[in-house]
Amino acid sequence: MTRRVLILEDQPFQRGYLVNLFSARAGVQVDACEDVDAAIALCACQAYDLVVSDLLMPGQDGIQFIQALAAQPRPPRLAVVSAASRRMMSSARLMAESLGLDVVGLLAKPVAASDVDALLDALAQTRPAVRTSPAALTPEPDAVQLRQALADGSLTAWFQPKKSLQSGRVVAAEALVRWRHPQLGTLAPGSFLPALCRHGLEGELLHAMLTASIQAQARWRSQGFRVPVSINLPPHLLEQSDLPDELLALTLAAGGNPADLCFELMENSTTRHVSDFYAGACRLRMKGFGLAQDDFGQGLSSVHNLVNTPFTEVKIDRALVSGCARDPALHLTLTTVIALANQLGLTIVAEGVESDADLAALRQLGCNQVQGFLVSQALPSDDFTRLLDEDAPDEGARGSRAASR
């Protein structure tokens, strides 16, 4: 398979050097240009698998190029190569990812042949699609459609496995919503979740995901597997003072066990009054549920909340995980976060693990569990059961497959 790569570099020597490095790899076709306008024009008329861009350039710089690239209808994946500081490149990565670009690497000059090999390996790890129709063709659902989907079970839970870095086996799962749309097929949350939030249906979705997770756990238990499940909980819902009581009543009525369920407090919202956040967190733990800080290292999550909230688990955001094996700053940050979490007695889960090198680094640093496309994408309940069967070492080990650090 031929991969098309575009290199944007203003210095002739560096441009030629990069062209030679990439061209020496089998199946790689390389184009190169020296300014932003030319690069954007090439991207508009040619589909590239990867764009490698400098940051420090006269005239329009690499940041402006990334902004322009993100405006393309189907932008290629991106790698940043620069003599700028690592923190500046990390900021460029965060900016690019916030615009929806897939950043596969940050390369410091001078670039080595091994850097190019690692970049092409990362490029080969494409993310599988979970929708059957392009988002641009998916009409935004209204409140009536969403309520109907919640009522008839079309909005359902798929499960992404969490693997133990100690045993190498699946020890837990995260419930992620999918819509089995009657006309459009299986839709990922990006095509309907924003509308659901705008219509104030997050509480109803939380109940549906909890029920679906308990039902899946019952099926897995009948096959001999105990699988704890994590469920996303937007923190602003904790403003409802009786939410912990509601969730416990629903869990018990459905035949679930609070000890096998963990609510992940998402980082994209918070309560208007901080007292509601801490009251809700304490009461969920007092009911016996697990509690996780989701997306730690991103958005509103903080060390203060991590230390002062009765969490049982911390999930490290992919922004701190992706590239940690090659990025000294990320590696140092993870070292500190994992050491703190271990001192707090938390289960440590790394999200967005997509390379063997990052997996090895996380294992060496003492991370407990990982999830991401390197392990598995989210799966329907029946497919998750088959994964458990394949993962089980023997029949006798099934009944004890509880989450472990």
UniProtKB/TrEMBL annotation:
InterPro entries hit by this protein: CheY-like_superfamily, Cyclic-di-GMP_PDE-like, EAL_dom, EAL_sf, Sig_transdc_resp-reg_receiver
Q: Superkingdom of this entry's organism?
A: Bacteria
Work out whether the entry's keyword set contains Hydrolase.
yes
Q: Where is the EAL domain?
A: 139-392
Domain Response regulatory: from-to ranges? 4-124
Which organism encodes this protein? Stenotrophomonas indicatrix
| Single GO MF descriptor | cyclic-guanylate-specific phosphodiesterase activity
Q: Which CDD domains match?
A: EAL
Q: Which PROSITE patterns match?
A: EAL, RESPONSE_REGULATORY
The record's listing under PANTHER family reads: CYCLIC DI-GMP PHOSPHODIESTERASE PDEF, SIGNALING PROTEIN YKOW
4-aspartylphosphate occurs at: D54
Any one Pfam family here would be: EAL
EC id: 3.1.4.52
The name under which this protein is listed is EAL domain-containing response regulator
Q: Provide this UniProt record's keywords sorted from A to Z.
A: Hydrolase, Phosphoprotein
The record's listing under SMART domains reads: EAL, REC
rRNA processing among keywords: no
